[in-house]
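A quick aside before the break. I want you to see a complete sequence-to-structure record at least once, exactly as it would be stored in a machine-readable document. Don't worry about memorizing anything.
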Amino acid sequence: MLEAADATDADRDLITRYFYAHTGRTRFVDKNNQHGLAVPYLHALFPDATFVYIKRNPGDTLNSMIEGWGMPERFGSWARDLPAKVAVDDGRYTRWCHYLPRGWRNYLKAPVEEVCAFQYEAIHRAILDAKRQIPADQWIEVFYEDIVREPTEGIFEIFDRLELPFDARIERHAKALLDKPYDPLFEIRLEKWRQHAHRERIERVLPSLRSIARDMGYPETFTADKAA
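That is the input. The structure line, written in tokens, reads:
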């Protein structure tokens, strides 16, 4: 995790030069879930940046994360030289995937659902803690589920807050958002975890996420057992 005190002029210069070379003098979106562990650092580097926090319920997120742990070349390429032996799920997973919150060494041999629950809570807690440091007009917070239910309205809300033009091209894109997922391996469907093979694993750890889910604004039903 990176804090505001870690930000240096050298970092700012390097990052600015990189993005200027690729985008020119325009504002850009950098979507990387690991940024959730570095919000204070990023705010210190770029104090005029706007943070868009898209929240997703624990069940569906854990389902996708477990799937991701089975794709180490895609979600763990950065962890090849991790200074620890990973033997998650009785050695089924040998490379750490997704992101690396503080306390990760305690989960090197844990069941994969426990690792994912730990990662989920750690990153969202870090984001919610960092939120207090960001001016309200530079913070946008939306539910992933709202965007899936009403893509056009959800995308429009974000564009409106960012003062970006929501023209006909963008509207057409928003209306077709669910027709063709950006990633064919991860279907866009709400509560999909209840019909997937990981359901029992996820149900076992959901109670541990009630507090963070509540703080994120989710109702108790997202972490309670119920029929599919």
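Two observations worth writing down. DSSP finds eleven helices and two strands in the chain. The first strand starts at residue 51 and ends at 55. We'll return to this after the break.
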